[in-house]
Amino acid sequence: MHKLVHAWGHDRLDMEQRQAWSLAALDLLREAIAGHEEDLSWQRRMVPHVVASFSAMSAACGPPYRLTHLERGALWTLGDLLRRLGRWKDEYGVRLFLNHATVVALEPEHPDTLASMNNLATALCEQGKYEQAEEIHGQTLKLRRKVLGPEHPDTLASINNLADILRLQGKYEQAEEMHIQTLKLKQKVLESEHPDILISMNYLAVVLGEQGKYEQAEEIYRQTVKLREKVLGSEHPDTLASMDNLAVVLRDYGKYEQAEEMHRQTLKLREKVLGPEHLDTLASMNNLAEVLSLQGKYEPAEEMHRQTLELKNKVLGLEHRDTLGSMNNLAVVLYEQGKYEQVEEIHRQTLRLRNKVLGPEHPDTLASINNLAIALDKQGKYEQAEGIS
């Protein structure tokens, strides 16, 4: 519909009609999204409609945020789509509105309200607002312990989420302690090979690896791979995720040849099982390129980073954080080859996009500022480098 026709029709609706039609449009979007959950390229084309529809609906319906269960479900679907596509600012707006509507409908301590709080905290985390995210995750955990009990799966999930926020802020000892606590509780209430136990083992291994406790992390990852192969099979996506994680810790431990071999194996299986454009496949390509670069194999690493970037741009779009991460990784391998002009160009583009998408204070944006300054310094552009820093 032409914008003028749309505006003309909208202006002639009273508030009750605006609410009804905006909610009807929301439901149509929910049905459309549900039919294309695996097609990220198609979902990207839906984003302008999702953002516009939510804007109209939120203006018409809130406050007092009175929505039915189905209408709240439609908002949940929109939030999930925006998360998948890296539109975290837009997702936060949806999650915040949904949280208000859920509290109005169900009260603050209802399990659905607590799930909504959890998603709100996750959206904040993705924007680099770790302190706010930590506060909400802490509140959610406290309420879940009260309402659901200390051993309920949702309570244990909240402990993991809070621990992960602590890890992202460099509070490794607290995060490690919390992950150990979660793992012990899960081992108490679940069977030894339950998938949730393996997830907690993975979380613990991540925080151990980030503290340089590579031997412990490697041991846990090897246990996870072995158990997942037994329970799920050697080609299950979760098994492949554990293989990829093991390869990463081997890389961080300096065992580059072993890491390269495992990354190649994981990439081959992911291409077979998930397809060449799946996000997990692209993650394997990126990880393989990184371990090649660490071994001084810069040309094949550059080629693989360029291929990964092209595919991520196709699947996710240029402004997605994963795409911007690939741009940064390409710049790193170009830097190692002394191609500083190309590095500067990529870092400028990455910085501009990260500033737009993530905001000027996001850790990724600040990292781009530092990277650009280093590239300028390497070319003798000291005044520009000092100005950026």
Strand content: under 5%
Q: Which segments are poorly predicted (pLDDT under 50) over 5 or more consecutive residues?
A: none
Going by CATH, the architecture of the domain at 212-313 would be: Alpha Horseshoe
| E-strand count | 0
Q: Which term fits the overall shape? A: globular
Major β-sheet profile: none
SSE string: HHHHHHHHHHHHHHHHHHH
| CATH-assigned homologous superfamily of the domain at 212-313 | Tetratricopeptide repeat domain
Relative helix content:
over 70%
Summing up helix and strand content along with how strands pair, one would put the structural category as mainly alpha
CATH class of the domain at 212-313: Mainly Alpha
| CATH topology group of the domain at 212-313 | Serine Threonine Protein Phosphatase 5, Tetratricopeptide repeat
Mean pLDDT: 91
- The helix count comes to 19
Distance between the termini: 47 Å
Explain what the structure shows.
It contains 19 helices and no strands. The protein is globular, with a radius of gyration of 23 Å. By secondary structure, the protein is mainly α. The N and C termini lie far apart (47 Å). Helix content is 81%, strand content 0%. The model has no long low-confidence stretch (mean pLDDT 91). Among the domains are: 212-313, Serine Threonine Protein Phosphatase 5, Tetratricopeptide repeat; 341-389, no CATH class.
